[in-house]
Task: structure prediction
Amino acid sequence: MTIITGAAHGIGKAYARRFAEEGAHVVIADIDHQGGQAAAKALTDAGFSAWARTTDVRIYSDVEGLMREAVDKFDRVDVLLNNAAIYVTQKLWKGAVEDLDLAEWDRVIEVNLKGVFLCSKAVIPIMKRQRSGKIINIASGTFFSGSGNMPHYTTAKGGVVALSRVMARQLGEYGINVNCMTPGSTMSEDSVTEEVLKRREGSVEKRAFRRIETPADIVGTALFLASSDSDFVTGQLLIVEGGGIMH
Result:
């Protein structure tokens, strides 16, 4: 069974479909109740196994409830994919560090870093009892370059990388893998406007593969990190950006 946070829209929704197509029981955990229910229904209508549970990753009691109900329903948690995040599709503020409002800093750190911590904290005891599990965290290429004028977002994503490495060290003896991946600027919006297209095209010239990235370019890497093929891979950061960053 796979829990994917932020799976009602965008790349998270694409992860959910690909995992479901591969036979996973998918739990769509998203703060958007209506969107999560619709995403789960689309999968079940297509003959796949999916269940939506409205979840706010900022609230530990909510996250604990998600894990408890998921285990009650499916008996175990094999994969946690920490995808939920605030990004430009949620009107992410951009600008200089000294101009960043404290409330905006807290808003992004709470979801993008604390949310990963809370979800991991809640699932680890379950995976320890199983003596197996895969935790996959979504970071960002801005961690390498400091680009984008998003101090809070980039800081949070750097923290996700650091947290992943600490957890990988701590959880290896229990057979739990913890890894990160960084999608590039991806055409994942539900509605593609001229502004969105311009933003996505802006990354093309920096890549070895000169084209816009789509969710289909990313989901296979997540599937690899969730599968038995990656059983001896942990504490790693995989970059899926078409050669825009080479690490």
In short: The chain has one domain: 2-240. The first helix runs from residue 10 to 21.
